[in-house]
Amino acid sequence: MAVTDLFARRATLGRSTRLLGEFRYEQSDPARFYGALATDTVDMVTDLWQATQIAAAAGRTVVDVGGGPGYFAAAFTRAGWNYVGVEPDPSEMHAAEHVRQAGPGAFVRASGMALPFADGSVDVCLSSNVAEHVPHPWQLGAEMLRVTRPGGLAIMSYTVWLGPFGGHEMGLTHYLGGARAAARYTRKHGRPPKNNYGSSLFAVSASAGLNWAAGTGALIAAFPRYHPRWAWWLTDVPGVREFLVSNLVLVLRPPIPPK
Questions:
Q1: Cα–Cα nearest to 221, from 151, 156, 169
Q2: Paired strand residues for 253
Q3: Is 179:171 a contact under the CB 8 Å cutoff?
Q4: Which CATH number fits the domain that encloses residue 147?
Q5: 211 to each of 8, 47, 72, 231, how far by Cα in Å?
Q6: Is 78 helix (H, G, I), strand (E, B) or coil?
Q7: Start-to-end C-alpha separation, the chain
Q8: From the first residue on, what is the mean pLDDT of each consecutive set of 10 residues in the chain (259 residues)?
Q9: Is the same domain home to 65 and 142?
Q10: Domain ends where: 194, 211, 237?
Q11: Which domain range does residue 173 map to?
């Protein structure tokens, strides 16, 4: 079975349309948006796990780097995973205190640049839409690989800068340049954007991620996260992928040492 075979069955046009529709609630009703995203993410991670492992996902540990207030915890736990959320920003950790109090999972305040876990100690290390928010995304990736056990999965999903959502709440103005878009947003709203270019938002390309992942020797799959299966070929086309992939998933599997 190919790595993406199971998840590809879910990657329909209907799913893409449904997730796009939920996106409009990100600011006004984050519980709705992130709840839908969490369910979809658990499906993706579980499918990738089942396609590459003999053992079931139940009882396995997933570390969610940049897990924020914990919307993903309940969804992963319902699917049988042992969930550990990692978040460096205390304001994010306290943004939805009720989510964590009411739900399962463990939470750690730490940086993805220096994960507080031993080498090869977790089954799956996930970062969902985090790499574009750190100045050194491939250091994050290296840390994720370090803590993932041989044969486990490190799954990095990030928003491609030149895609339509690269500017986050700045909209399509990021095509004018990140600094200019941030200044324009500040003038219009009287405050800087939450995802401020140069401090909490950075230009990360699809090609940079693919090149880094290939260089690790652990890359086993790459595909657009929210696209239907018939559009996954866009990942393979230089130039085009920067504008049309939107969100890139890199799936890495640390090799099992020979006996």
A1: 156
A2: none
A3: no
A4: 3.40.50.150
A5: 23, 25, 29, 21
A6: helix
A7: 24
A8: 92 94 75 85 96 91 86 89 85 48 71 94 96 96 97 97 93 92 90 89 97 97 97 97 97 87
A9: yes
A10: 194
A11: 163-194
